[in-house]
């Protein structure tokens, strides 16, 4: 597989954790009710859930910067990736704060839904336009 293929794998791999943790935090009571011992059920305060989200969001940003660093994408891609990555990290950092964690989880979830197609769209546009 090419380097870009591995990068795309990494994007999907690291994106899914913040996305899933935000969903799981939102529905943790439902998981607890059916005795499904997921991390958000066992971590009642949510610090570990939010921490895993942030670590994976940071790894995601690093992986998405690789095409630019390896010469597989233009500086326009890299600039757009930095903006999208900063936004996604901001949502993950907000999830760390105990006050308002439920709302922050919903916002992280919505950000994750927007982030992935935007990020992949920037990569496709960069490859098609070929700056």
Task: Give the uncertain stretches in residue-range form.
Answer: none
Distance between the termini: 24 Å
Count, helices: 6
Helix and strand succession?
A: HHHHHH
Shape category: elongated
Radius of gyration: 16 Å
Number of strands: 0
Largest sheet: none
The average pLDDT value, as a whole number, equals: 93
Strand content: under 5%
Query: What share of residues is helical?
Result: over 70%
Structural class: mainly alpha
Overview of this structure, please?
- The chain is mainly α.
- Helices cover 82% and strands 0% of the residues.
- The chain has 6 helices and no strands.
- It has helices spanning 3-26, 28-33, 39-42, 47-69, 75-96, 101-129.
- The mean pLDDT is 93.
Which descriptors apply to this entry?
mainly alpha; 131 residues
Short structural summary:
The protein has 131 residues and is mostly helical. Helix content is 82%, strand content 0%.
Write the topology of this structure.
Elements: H1 3-26, H2 28-33, H3 39-42, H4 47-69, H5 75-96, H6 101-129
């Amino acid at each position: 597989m090419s380097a870009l293929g591995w990068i795309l794998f990494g994007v999907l791999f690291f994106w899914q954790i913040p996305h899933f943790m935000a969903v799981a935090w939102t529905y943790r009571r439902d998981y607890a009710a059916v005795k499904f011992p997921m991390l958000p059920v066992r971590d009642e305060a949510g610090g570990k859930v939010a921490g895993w989200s942030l670590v994976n969001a940071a790894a995601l940003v690093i992986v998405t910067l690789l095409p630019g660093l390896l010469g597989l994408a233009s500086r326009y891609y890299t600039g757009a990736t930095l903006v999208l990555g900063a936004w996604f990290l901001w949502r993950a950092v907000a999830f760390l704060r105990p006050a308002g964690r439920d709302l922050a989880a919903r916002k992280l979830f919505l950000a994750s839904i927007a982030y992935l197609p935007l990020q992949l769209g920037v990569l496709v546009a960069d490859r098609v336009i070929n700056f």
